[in-house]
Specification:
The chain is an alpha+beta fold. The chain has 3 domains: 117 residues, Gcn5-related N-acetyltransferase (GNAT) (Aminopeptidase); 163 residues, Aminopeptidase, CATH 3.40.630; 95 residues, 2-Layer Sandwich (Nonspecific Lipid-transfer Protein, Chain A). 26% of the residues lie in helices and 30% in strands. It contains 10 helices and 22 strands. Strands 1, 2, 3, 4, 5, 6, 9 and 17 form an 8-stranded mixed β-sheet that branches. The longest helix has 24 residues. The chain is globular and about 70 Å long. The protein binds acetyl coenzyme *A (ACO). The site of acetyl coenzyme *A (ACO) has 22 residues, from strand 4 and helix 4. It holds the Pfam family Acetyltransf_9. Belongs to the acetyltransferase Eis family.
């Protein structure tokens, strides 16, 4: 048995060692994994990088619960946190309907006192090494500014459609069967489970959609008064057919009165339906809300059907914005995980300066049923960087279009058309929400 004094000596030595270790970690300015008890300072550093506007207690607690500390990084200067980065645990739908593990890169911020010294670069280095070690073939993010992430191999792969529809002038014609859909107002929180079940049914149907870690769904219900922009609290309407919930819409209404009458606006937050008539019924509902004359929507699928139901697309004031950025972390595994809408058999000469393990020649052979992709020493058919592969990965950006910009080079005649058709998609990929 150890004497009490020896025990005290050992434990104080261990304590010294532990303190030294923490001090060493804090003195190195290398990114390191976040400890749970550092979360508040880490998160404050992030909020400050985004301007320092305070969040509601509810929002903060939700983000605390959603942070996987073991997947999060911080950089410390002495005892101050100066940079943050996190990674959600998503599964991303890819063409063909498979669900691929994807690191959802998020909460990236560097203190303004430490910007432009390579801190972000060091976090991206560590994070992509980690993602590779976790066996996730793809990393994804939404960018605060499009100029930031290309240097790390990310590229815009999905786009969202914004619209401001003059519902006072634009009429909507709906498909047969829409009248069979019943709508009812519900409390958004009380019917969360029913809405999530609808969402889950739509996830495999469109590349770019996300299966999310538990708890995430509560983000869609956050409704701080400070962020309503003068509009109502969040409202929710369910669509039902034959007693089954087949869709939902969440939205707000901003009332406005002018001398000439009402000028209210409906602001769509999210709308999901499992079939065309449920979606059409929800769009018709939004178009018809009394005392409103416009409908504002953001980040909808580029090919969403409502555009073919309206009488005047010009008065819908469409705009397109970049949405999901994709980075292939393991080129072979990522390209094997999706299918190709027409047979493709090409050798890709890939350049990847930031993740050199991807560089070199890969033979991709695939069709609508599946694909194999492995190293080869055969002559290359197409030369491109990992960014072009990320852009084209979900079928939303054409390889031929990238070739037009000089970013894909065809080395075997015919290879570009073959790959461009194979990589394409019948449905536009879409990210349903930011993260
Ligand atoms: C997924 C997300 O979370 S997106 C959110 C990103 N965060 C924000 O927008 C919050 C506010 N901004 C910041 O916190 C920081 O400015 C960051 C994170 C964007 C950049 O961090 P820094 O540590 O300054 O970046 P770092 O010094 O590593 O820069 C690396 C390169 O990117 C460039 N760069 C960095 N930020 C930007 C930018 N916003 N626009 C254009 N280029 C940029 C740098 O000039 C540098 O270029 P170089 O390699 O040619 O010299």
């Amino acid at each position: 048995m150890r004497s009490e004094a020896a025990g005290r000596a050992t434990s104080s030595a261990a304590g010294r060692q532990g303190r030294r270790k923490v001090r060493d970690m804090r003195e190195s300015r290398e990114p390191r994994v976040l400890h749970r008890d550092e979360w508040d300072e880490w998160y404050d550093t992030l909020l400050r990088a985004f301007g320092g506007v305070e969040e509601s207690a509810e929002e903060r607690e939700l983000f605390r619960a959603l942070t996987s500390c073991e997947r999060s990084l911080g950089v410390w200067d002495g005892d101050r946190c100066v940079a943050t980065a996190g990674a959600y645990d998503f599964r991303l739908t890819v063409p063909g309907g498979a669900s691929v593990p994807a690191a959802g890169v998020t909460m990236v911020g560097v203190s303004a006192t430490h910007r432009r010294r390579g801190v972000l670069t060091s976090m991206m280095r560590r994070q992509l090494d980690d993602v590779r070690a976790w066996g996730e073939p793809v990393a994804i993010l939404t960018a605060s500014e499009p100029d930031i992430y290309g240097r790390f191999g990310y590229a815009a792969a999905t786009f969202g459609l914004h619209a401001e529809i003059d519902t006072g002038r634009v009429r909507l014609s709906v498909p047969a069967g829409t009248d069979d859909v019943r709508l009812r107002y519900v409390d958004p929180g009380a019917e969360l489970e029913a809405c999530e079940a609808v969402y889950a049914r739509t996830v495999p149907a469109r590349a770019g959609m996300l299966a999310r870690q538990a708890g995430w769904e509560r983000l869609g219900l956050l409704d701080p008064a400070s962020e309503r922009g003068g509009a109502s609290p969040l409202q929710c309407v369910l669509a039902e057919r034959d007693g089954e919930v087949t869709g939902y819409v969440r939205f707000r209404v901003r009332s406005e009165w002018r001398d000439s009458g009402h000028n209210g606006q409906v602001r769509l937050q999210d709308l999901t339906g499992v079939d065309p008539v449920s979606e059409a019924a929800l769009w018709r509902f939004l178009f018809g809300i009394d005392l409103t004359s416009s409908l504002k929507v953001r980040g909808r699928p580029l090919d969403e059907a409502w555009q073919h139901l309206v009488s005047d697309i010009r008065r819908c004031e469409l705009r397109v914005r970049d949405s999901l950025y994709v980075r292939l972390v393991d080129v072979g595994a990522a390209l094997e995980a999706r299918t190709y809408q027409a047979p493709v058999d090409v050798v890709l000469q890939v350049e990847d300066a930031f993740c050199p393990w991807n560089s070199g020649r890969w033979r991709l052979s695939g069709d609508a049923k599946g694909a194999v992709c492995g190293r080869t020493s055969d002559a290359a058919d197409l030369a491109l960087s990992v960014r072009e592969l990320g852009a084209a990965y979900l079928g939303g950006v054409g390889l031929a279009s990238l070739a037009g910009a000089g970013r894909v080079r065809e080395l075997r005649p015919g290879a570009l058309a073959e790959a461009a058709v194979g990589f394409g998609a019948t449905t536009a990929p879409w990210l349903p929400h930011g993260f």
